[in-house]
Design brief:
With about 170 residues, the protein is of the alpha+beta class. The protein has one domain: Aminopeptidase. The chain contains 4 helices and 7 strands; from the N terminus they run βααβββαβαββ. It has a 4-stranded antiparallel beta sheet, sandwiched between helices. The chain has a 3-stranded antiparallel beta sheet with strand order 5-7-6. The longest helix is centred in the first third of the chain and has 18 residues.
Length: about 170
């Protein structure tokens, strides 16, 4: 498991976390640049969490729930997953709107990158973002990721960034 950061705790998903995660996933501001701006159904939220639980058990990584240390609230997720069903491993994150603009996405993503390169021995981690999602692009740049190319997935244009681990 990823070590806690100064303000965040990573943990495994609990079966009822979908109820805590639902307000985040149903916030149009959070999903504006993902899932083509639509909010997921309860079933999709449950399936996402179950897939993350299984991925962690099978492969040692997933999109982990993020808990804010100050109030023990689940505030989003950050972790690793297969980009569009692989083979590339991507870093991803969602945060509740109330927690935007405080450097938490960068703090979480730095810990995840260290885990991916150090613990998992990954040679490369990628990230995709909607070209207009300036906040996410700033996080990727702060992580030392570099623009690699434009990519289209399910008819939506994305920027693809990458970073290689120490060889």
């Amino acid at each position: 498991m990823i070590q806690p950061t100064k303000r965040l705790i990573f943990r495994q998903w609990l079966p009822d976390d979908w109820l805590r995660f639902k307000p985040i996933a149903n916030d149009p501001r959070v999903v504006r640049y993902v899932v083509q701006g639509g909010v997921p159904t309860d079933e999709q939220i449950r399936a996402h969490i179950e897939a993350a639980r299984k991925r962690y058990l099978d492969e040692g990584f997933c999109l982990w729930p993020l808990v804010y240390r100050a109030n023990h609230e689940l505030i989003g997720f950050c972790g690793l997953d297969y980009l569009w069903d692989g083979p590339d491993i991507e870093i991803g994150y969602w945060l509740a709107h109330a927690y935007w603009g405080n450097g938490l996405a960068t703090e979480a993503a730095q810990a995840v990158m260290e885990y991916g390169f150090g613990k998992l021995g990954l040679q490369r981690i990628v990230a995709v973002s909607h070209p207009e999602n300036r906040a996410s692009l700033r996080v990727l740049q702060k992580l030392g990721m570099t623009f690699e190319r434009m990519a289209v997935h399910q008819g939506v244009e994305h920027v693809l960034y990458s970073k290689s681990g120490a060889l």
